Every structure is written in structure tokens, then in C-alpha cells.
Amino acid sequence: MNTHVDELVMQPTRHFDNPGEVLTYPGLKHKDRLRILESWKLDAQRLAESTAENMSGGEKTNLRDVSRALMHLKSMEHLPGAKQRPDLGRPIAEGMAIGGLLGAGAGLVATAATPTVSFALVAQASVVGLIVGGIAGALRAPQQKKEL
Predict the structure, then answer these.
(1) Alpha carbons 130 and 74: distance in angstroms, whole number
(2) Same domain, 65 and 96
(3) Torsion-angle region of residue 84: left (phi > 0), alpha (psi -120 to 50) or beta?
């Protein structure tokens, strides 16, 4: 195990001025950031309990800031790259987005060119573009998986 990370986990307040710095500290993996913030939160909870029992030395607890940073980190778990692994569903979403935009653009051009065509054509073209783009992205996803 990495002794540097272990030191950050054991004494996070010695290495960071505030919990938000853990989120941007270079070279840490997602799981290491999680360990550091969870350790910091446990320390802050203990300090808050001591303060409530009138047993602290007057130190200020930053439980709220640690909890916010931890929630932010946990919300990043589902973002591409947050765990340093590729998101294989991304090509489908990209294909759908591009297809939808192209379909909407084609529908707008057709609507502008022909005055009798309604804006329903734009919606229909967008849906067709989403479907075609999603299929194209799905076909591209296995190729990207092989490249990894």
C-alpha cells in the first residue's frame, strides 16, 4: 500500500487546509480520495461529539465542509474518468446527441425550404436522428472496447 496515501488518510488536516483540496489533489485515485475524506469525516464527527459534551479544546469542527466534499466525490462516481476507467456507454450517447442535432437541422432546413411543411417534421427528424445516431454509437462501442 502507498505510504504517502496512508499518511494522508491518517492525518488529513496536516496535509490539507480544507476538505475541498482533497478533490483536486494531483495523483490520487478516486478510492484514495474517498478514504481520506471518510477518515476526515470520522475525526470531525468525534470532535463534534466532544464539543457537544463540553470536552473539546475549543477546536473548530469542519464536519459540514467534509460532508459536502464527500457528497461531491460520491456524486462523481458515475462520471466518465472519475474511477479511471472508460465509460463504454458514451459512444451511444454521443451518437444520439449528434444524430438528434443533425435530424433537427435537416427538419429545420426542410421546414424553411417548403412553407407547407409543419414544425412536426422537425420533431420527427430529431427522433429519427436520435435513433440512427444511437444505433451508430452502439455499433461503435464494441470497437472502442477492443481498443482498450
Answers:
(1) 30
(2) no
(3) left
Q: Which residue's C-alpha cell is 496535509?
A: 15
Which of 50, 78, 106 delimits the end of a domain? 78
Task: Write out the DSSP string of 67-83.
Answer: HHHHHHHHHGGGSTTTT
pLDDT tens digit sequence for 98-116: 877 788 877 777 777 777 7
Do 17 and 68 share a domain, yes or no? yes
Residues whose CB is less than 8 angstroms from the CB of residue 148 and which lie 6 or more positions away in sequence, other chains included: 86
Residue 103, domain extent: 90-147
> Comparing C-alpha atoms, which of 81, 82, 132 is closest to residue 102?
132
Same domain, 8 and 70: yes
What predicted TM-score, i.e. pTM, was given to this entire model? 0.50
Residues 8-60: pLDDT tens digits? 999 998 999 999 899 888 888 989 999 999 998 998 888 878 777 777 665 66
